[in-house]
Amino acid sequence: MTGKLYAVGIGPGDPELMTIKAVRILKQVPCIVVPKGREEGSSLALSIVQKILPLDGKEIVEAFFPMKKTMGGEREDLDHQWNETVDAVLNRLDRGTDAAFITIGDPGIYSTFFYLYDRLLERRPSLAIEIIPGISSINAAAARAGVYLGLGNERIAILPANYLESLQETLEKFDTVVLMKVNKVFDTVREILEKMDLAGNAVYVARTGMEDERIYNDIRTVGKEDLNYFSLMIVRKR
Amino acid sequence: MTGKLYAVGIGPGDPELMTIKAVRILKQVPCIVVPKGREEGSSLALSIVQKILPLDGKEIVEAFFPMKKTMGGEREDLDHQWNETVDAVLNRLDRGTDAAFITIGDPGIYSTFFYLYDRLLERRPSLAIEIIPGISSINAAAARAGVYLGLGNERIAILPANYLESLQETLEKFDTVVLMKVNKVFDTVREILEKMDLAGNAVYVARTGMEDERIYNDIRTVGKEDLNYFSLMIVRKR
After folding, report:
1. Which of A57, A95, A157, B108 could form a disulfide with A142 if both were Cys (CB 3.0 to 4.6 A apart)?
2. Architecture of the domain defined by B5-132
3. pTM value?
4. Which CATH architecture has domain A137-236?
């Protein structure tokens, strides 16, 4: 019997924001897979789980995620790297071992899991994979800041922060705009919001759900030192 | 000491998708508030919690949520109804009793909680309110259907389904479009998607997380009997 793979969203950082199902499955599986080689996150995901669940006796597989942009000659090398990662996961499943891939937040929201998912299903179309949703940083940040993302008939847009050129248009057409990983473009975003008279409607949340979380209800007070990889901004038109 | 109010997202229906924090707080508080008089949902929320947690000895407050559109003379009556609901909650808090308002999904995603929130803070600006995020039906439906909502630099739009007139434009500009409560406009949405050659890219999920959940990877097979208040559609451009 081939093992089953679970993709488990472990929430934004606070271990108590894991679901009962996530905890049950992580208790149950003998093997936990964490993506390796990302900017941040892999050891972080494991440390969140460890706060609530002893991992003694479990096999921890650090799977390398080659996320570099593909450019000409690198293509083959990238495929080779991916094959190694896929092999590492399939080896465990082929032994009949169930495994859980853990991901911060929700697997469906900008997680790396789906890069692996497609490649696994390419190799083994009938593989049993179950995705366990998690609290995303978006929902957690809104809760912590005391704002809602949508009410009634409102429209919500979620943008990676590199869509600066269409930000103004999106702000005009949507009631709520969530800007992910806003740290790299913070100053430009703030300028656009000030120009549109919306700077007072924005909240900035850094490292939501983590111990050093910070919430800014006035983005004019955010300094360079407050910018962080795990950061997002919620702009509400009303 | 005034009691504290928690707004607790209990997830989409599967009791195991409650967070550890939600369960801890619901165990802890002596009083649980559920919205009454909504299309569906209040008794449902309570029945989800009851599957995982005995409610014996807790006070259950069914708070009336007057959600009718305000039209001229009805305004005063509506305010009166809201005041009664706000009073019911404040009475418990004033006694020093902590209370938890429970809501299906996530409090920040189209939940009625924020109607109450604003009115409570109007009356008691210093009231202690903590919002506990929950798994929204959007994240749960994506997980169950095996699709992601966003990857890399993709843009996500979430629309209540009554924005038909701008649906085509939104589909052109976003990578993923989530249509909430799509049951009422299903045929028109399907027509628009077929015209845009996107019908094959849509999944329809009815009653996600509930026992009678149904997932349709081909929306052409969805019949009238499959349309449901708790339903949504995810359209992925790729």
Report:
1. B108
2. 3-Layer(aba) Sandwich (3.40)
3. 0.93
4. 2-Layer Sandwich (3.30)
